[in-house]
Amino acid sequence: xxxxxxxxxxxxxxxxxxxxxxxxxxxxxxxxxxxxxxxxxxxxxxxxxxxxxxxxxxxxxxxxxxxxxxxxxxxxxxxxxxxxxxxxxxxxxxxxxxxxxxxxxxxxxxxxxxxxxxxxxxxxxxxxxxxxxxxxxxxxxxxxxxxxxxxxxxxxxxxxxxxxxxxxxxxxxxxxxxxxxxxxxxxxxxxxxxxxxxxxxxxxxxxxxxxxxxxxxxxxxxxxxxxxxxxxxxxxxxxxxxxxxxxxxxxxxxxxxxxxxxxxxxxxxxxxxxxxxxxxxxxxxxxxxxxxxxxxxxxxx
Length: 301
Hints:
By secondary structure, this protein is an alpha/beta fold.
């Protein structure tokens, strides 16, 4: 019975993505951004969460605060969208649910996007927001860093940049379906291609070229799979088994483990790229967010 419900929910999402594609062939970046943002508008705001715009060290951001939650428990969230699209608006349903799950606050960044602001602008913005949080009195040991897709890779890059700068690190990290390899060399790019309705290798490489703007795709802060990963805090990585980016997660987990980092890898059966975005209509999306809440509350107090 549960499998039948899950399969029906996934079928509805695949139909939604087919009927409301984020991008048509030849779409402009403006059109792609409108398409992804529109997904976030499909669900009404959740009760019990307030949203407040803020300038986070020069980076546009929004606080999502759970009513009655612990204001000292914070998730710094970096949205996905291939570094060329995505926003607080596109991810609002996920961000509201995450604030409730962690029983605290989520600071979601609208970091600069390519092609207007290519690599390393997103990394710079994430670092600026981190320093702003600490300067504002937030305790590093009570902050988690999370992100999905490109934002998941950016979360790892942020940790590497902070470690190299000898800055206090967060309590834990939660990359969701992270994009960690801009060369798209994982075997799952082929083995999962027929099952993934959102991410395909050719489009991914084109987006990577836009973001990199001439930088080498192997650059560690762009492809954190290539970074030195020792000294990082505990990780929870969630990825779906139906994702072309599956191997970006499995290889990252293996490299973290080899570096001595505490890492938990969850591969969710049949799930597509960042299924958490569809939590309003997908039970597994809400379950995955709840699991993140448990992890963050365990590690960030």
